[in-house]
Amino acid sequence: MAIPAETFFLRPDTETSLQQQIQQLVVEAILSGRCLPGERMPSSRKLAEHLGVARITVTIAYTELVSNEYLISKGRSGYYVAQNAPSRPKFNLPDQSENTGIDWSRTLGQRFLAHVPVMRPQNWRDYKYPFIYGQSDPRLFDHHNWRNCALKAVGRKDFDILATDYYERDDPMLVEFILRQILPRRGITARPEEILITMGAQHALWITAQILLTQRRTAVIENPCYPGLRQILNQTRCNTISIDVDNAGLPPEKLPDSLDVVFTTPSHHCPTNATMPVSRRHRLLELAAEGEFVVVEDDYEFEISFLKSPSPALKSLDPTGCVIYVGSFSKSLFPGLRLGYIVASEPFIREARALRSLVLRHPPGLIQRTAAYFLSLGHYDAQIARMGRIYRKRRSIMEQSISEERLSLTTQGTFGGSSFWMKAPDGIDSTKLAMSLRQDGVLIEPGSAFFATDEEDPGHYRLAYSSIASARIPDGISLIGKKIREARR
Amino acid sequence: MAIPAETFFLRPDTETSLQQQIQQLVVEAILSGRCLPGERMPSSRKLAEHLGVARITVTIAYTELVSNEYLISKGRSGYYVAQNAPSRPKFNLPDQSENTGIDWSRTLGQRFLAHVPVMRPQNWRDYKYPFIYGQSDPRLFDHHNWRNCALKAVGRKDFDILATDYYERDDPMLVEFILRQILPRRGITARPEEILITMGAQHALWITAQILLTQRRTAVIENPCYPGLRQILNQTRCNTISIDVDNAGLPPEKLPDSLDVVFTTPSHHCPTNATMPVSRRHRLLELAAEGEFVVVEDDYEFEISFLKSPSPALKSLDPTGCVIYVGSFSKSLFPGLRLGYIVASEPFIREARALRSLVLRHPPGLIQRTAAYFLSLGHYDAQIARMGRIYRKRRSIMEQSISEERLSLTTQGTFGGSSFWMKAPDGIDSTKLAMSLRQDGVLIEPGSAFFATDEEDPGHYRLAYSSIASARIPDGISLIGKKIREARR
């Protein structure tokens, strides 16, 4: 007798095709021991009827399961669970329900959980007006060509090479095209030995901090500053000095007399978007040469520079090799990719490579190769050009709407970027404003997390336009204006 | 006048299609400023003639470049560099040739470069007899279905979700199928809150060591031991005690009275392959409960257990939650994938997640989703079954050849694995033996890197059969036997 079709149930699942859902059902039934080797499967007709799907769907699923050796086909008499079907071993196991023997508060030697308030809800896509920063916008990304590049990278020829453990190395093709096509956009020339691929800019900053900083060293950061960097520095337990930025970014003359590392975002200061003028860049490098400190240039968003020509990177002006340059594909491609890179002097890159290898070996080869194809075929440069056009349009709509609603911008002199740094009227706390706006479907990012202390004006907030369609911008800004007017009453 | 076709050259490159090579040529020429906006491209006929390719190949490349906005088509008059073609900014740059201003020996705060001898040449695939451990074998891997799963993951529907920054989260689909399809194979039941996806087992061990160990804590490791773990512990500066293993793995009665963490490989001890009997597993857990220490179970190769049924994982016997379980896809899928996982009590996983997020956010979503499909459609279990069959065959050929050549095995009682732990006759140094065998196209892995001190017998070596075809084994083993006999003369 065959296994009754009625023991199989489809779970509503829109992500997976019917055929694959049926495969999953059968695999699960065999692996769990519910269907045993030698048992006959329900006929494709019966199972199709029971599940309410086309018979061919079941037949294809069964055929696939035969090729995977879960089932065997015995011609007219139908499909059977294979005698050698994959199975799970059986054990007699202790009851794990009272799993409370360890005092974890004593056992944990180092703590990493920080209580950073969550500024972005996980379901930000469900909001109608997501003025949210740093996420991807499927409308902007050249998914079609990315998919083609991924296909190429996962093809047989590349796969056999990419499947192996690279130990500490990188995909030479990705390194080559970063050197040939990305770094020249920033005026940087480098050799392959001077570059390390990382799992995004966060990873690049983390590696850099581990190598340069100890409890006895001093780091300077900008205020306000990317909160992820502040977390990294806290964990190194170095002495951290925050310096207030102005409309031209970090003022070099305010640097302390003794320091080891400066972290800066000269292209677009994070989060104010201020661009550091070339004169300041030269001054910073002079001070670095005199004071023998290192400058970490986080060029996280250089591609998005469309208002004027971008300034050359600090790294390109650096005759002594004191600049460690951090780049990322998160803004130009997409953040879930987790790819970035460090460009620095060879002795530094060697250490960084050793640390990366200790922690995780290397970023997955298939991802590196996909990005390499995307670069080599010109899709990356085309993507940057397209993004620039769309961001320029969105930005001008943002400016007009902000002006109509009389909201206050706080920075001048920006070269582009994908956001505005705003200031609510006195007395308004942007965290409360943000929570209240969520009810209207509007997401803004409160500014408090960017500041070194809690004593700053709580009115700052960031409005990004990288994930919101142009047509939605005026209504979204109008809702923010309305909420602020209500709050002032 | 059109740009002369003669200024374009194909570089011999078997990895990339002709059409894509032509695209690259043109992109490079435009980005470098060699072809300027408004200039006319050579006709497809002329360029095809010059490059020696079919005209349609050039036409398709041009069409692709039009859609990427590098070129525009003006009907009969041909293709022109677009006025708005992507371009690179130009800078006046200082001379970077004397890039020697920084004294890196003083600037580096922490050093990570260890001088571990390279045991495996990068070009190991070019060797005829690669008895090399832990690399992938394209003959064993179900590349066809992996590719299909990758295609599905990079499809539009999944892509839009996977492209976003997950912050500290994982792909819920991968977590679900690890819980449903992998952990039951080890007798482990767990909740989604008790699992963290990592960039491979190395990353999992690194995270675990960071959280549990400080300079004031004591870790116990096996001797011999996976060298990557010893490097991780060195970097934490904890007190590390190495305990010699025997034919049944780590002997619990030799543990010191006071310790904080034990790292062990009970399924197949690394590198001897000894399997820890269930009685020892229970004893180890009793001691852990009494001594309030944590056991880190590195189950790096459990899938490759084909001689007897696998023993249940330590984690499955653990009523108090003192076991931190580390799994990896490197052996069952392929090492370049860089995917593994930690299963442990929720307070530990929360810290591990925070640390992972600080260092790199999360493993790339596309990779996680591809693996999830591979699991969900039953390919993973089918793959394990297939590998078991082939490894069993290779192992028996290995055993026969080893016996015929009278080479010495050192461990009994193994349940499978993908290698043998060998011992050369007294007086033979396996490092020299390995270097000498390379000339014959034979790769073996010398044992010295696995030991805590240099005082061990230098005759140990590892012979793996995960990357060598069955038909090559007898000749390879015979060459090893011959070399050893020569060395003894």
UniProtKB/TrEMBL annotation, chains A, B:
SMART domains: HTH_GNTR. It holds the Pfam family Aminotran_1_2. The keyword tRNA-binding does not apply. SUPFAM superfamilies: PLP-dependent transferases, Winged helix' DNA-binding domain. Signal peptide: none annotated. CDD domains: AAT_like, WHTH_GntR. InterPro entries: Aminotransferase_I/II_large, HTH_trans_reg/aminotransferase, PyrdxlP-dep_Trfase, PyrdxlP-dep_Trfase_major, Tscrpt_reg_HTH_GntR, WH-like_DNA-bd_sf, WH_DNA-bd_sf. Keywords: Aminotransferase, DNA-binding, Pyridoxal phosphate, Transcription, Transcription regulation, Transferase. Residues 16-84 form the HTH gntR-type domain. One of its GO terms (molecular function) is transaminase activity. In the C-terminal section; belongs to the class-I pyridoxal-phosphate-dependent aminotransferase family. This is PLP-dependent aminotransferase family protein.
